[in-house]
Amino acid sequence: MRHFLEVAYNGKTFSGWQVQPNKRTVQGVINDALSTLHQQPINVVGCGRTDAGVHASQYFLHYDADKPPHEDIVYRLNALVGREIAVKRIIAVGDDDHARFHATERAYTYRTHFQKDPFFDELSYYCFYRGLDHEAMQQAAWLIAQTKDFAPLCKADEDQTNTRCDVRYVRLSFSKDGNAMELNIASNRFLYNMIRRIVGLLITVGRGKIDNTEVKHVLETSGTFNINFVAPPQGLYLSRVAYPFIEAHGKAEEHV
Questions:
Q1: Does the predicted TM-score (pTM) go above 0.90?
Q2: Which site among 32, 77, 100, 129 is 20 to 30 Å from 213 CA-CA?
């Protein structure tokens, strides 16, 4: 029988989501906890992979087990997975429902702060550039939202046969005092490092190192940007994953 788990995690101490030899990963910790509770080997399948240092405020995974989970499995899992992972709910699903392939939309948030703060540095990107042109950055964000082929915003040597993404929205906002910036973006899919490259492009535009005429031309012609600024991982959060068979904000039931 198959179940989905909704979890959240702080990626600071993990070497990413995916199991790696001799590395502490989110998938590895959850595999071990579920295997202990179900008393059989469990290998979970996640909705996607996150790199080292990247966080998730909403993440779904599925796993198969021979027997139904214990009625208080959410409580028991939270006792085993450590402080950096929170298990929110477990959902009984069909045997063919898939955490990765059946997700219809994913949304990410990228957080940046411009005033140095030791309490934010592991959960947000400290950008020391000041006096950024917010209007130009908003225009660049709008251009990105109109784009279909994201080849200019993926790693040049990445083996990508399909670089098209159906971006639903790109929202860029700044705090009133200008000391914080947040990018929210949703799409049916994302390319490797795509969001961190978008943040790098927006900051480069804000610094006046590239103008939006060039941004528009490169995006429309699937050209190449003469910049290599990839924002660091700690500001990036997977913030929402949508499925046709799961309520976005359902009650956190221990067993359905």
A1: yes
A2: 129
